Amino acid sequence: MVSRPLSRGELFDRLNSCDIAFPAIHGAFGEDGKLQELLDEAGVPYVGAGAKAASSAYDKYSAWVLLKDANILAVPSILLTRDMAPDVIADAIMTILHENDRIVLKPAAGGSSLGVEVVESTDMAIDRLQNSLFRSDRHNADRVVVQPWVAGIEFTIVVLEGPNGPVALIPLEIERNRRADEFEILSYRHKYLPNDDTAYPCPPTFSDELIDEIRHTAERVFDSMELRDFARVDGWVDSQGHVLISDINVISGMEQNSFLFIQAAQVGLTHGDVLSHIIGSASRRAALHQEEKS
Fold first, then answer.
1. Is CATH 3.30.1490.20 what the domain over 78-148 is classified as, yes or no?
2. For a disulfide at 231, which of 135, 138, 227, 244, Cβ 3.0-4.6 Å?
3. Consecutive H or E run containing 36
4. What pLDDT, in 10s, does the model give residues 209-263?
């Protein structure tokens, strides 16, 4: 049998046969609000952030603006777009390179470290860097976020929505082994392909006070971004001990050893427990009955 795409009406009929949807698509369409808009149009309740919140969280610059407005420390960001005048782009690059020896270039919309590049101030002339910004092989190259390189320790933390507000789990530290150099990023290969270059201590090696600060900050992020049910927040503890937020993920990974399940296990939740909690949160919002676990 040859497959064929569903018409919009057929898709909506399929969607409306479901009690609730659980979006689990990473990246474009899954986390950028497009799938959520479709589910809203179909009238199907779903797990996770709404369309507007997902769109804001997925766009790194929009997320930074919202966090800044909420007085939450985040990695400083400058947005450069392909349609900007060359002299405006050059001035922005000169400003951030004058203040930092290294900068990080990121697609404004995207994830999994795709298209991310670390640039030293001595690596290239400004005109070459301008040409590099929007090169065709960079993922989502029309809008690029420029950030200072952060020296410190990376962490990620999952937040669950509880009956009285968001509850952050135990943060997980990202510990790099055998780095090519101290500026090598946690790339797609390190995250998803078999390797032993990275360890994930959970609980982390931080003090109890710092863990509490990270948890409190993540809960504030969840509230300020108007997230729902669950989310994952990435960040840094910089060399001065400040907690800086770097990325917000409205759909955490669902692999066997994903950060969601590692952190849930620290508070005694099995895979089934944490998924039941997340679905239960969305079901209550949609006034759906969820059967109790036997």
1. yes
2. 227
3. helix 34-42
4. 999 999 999 999 999 999 999 999 999 999 999 999 999 999 988 888 899 999 9
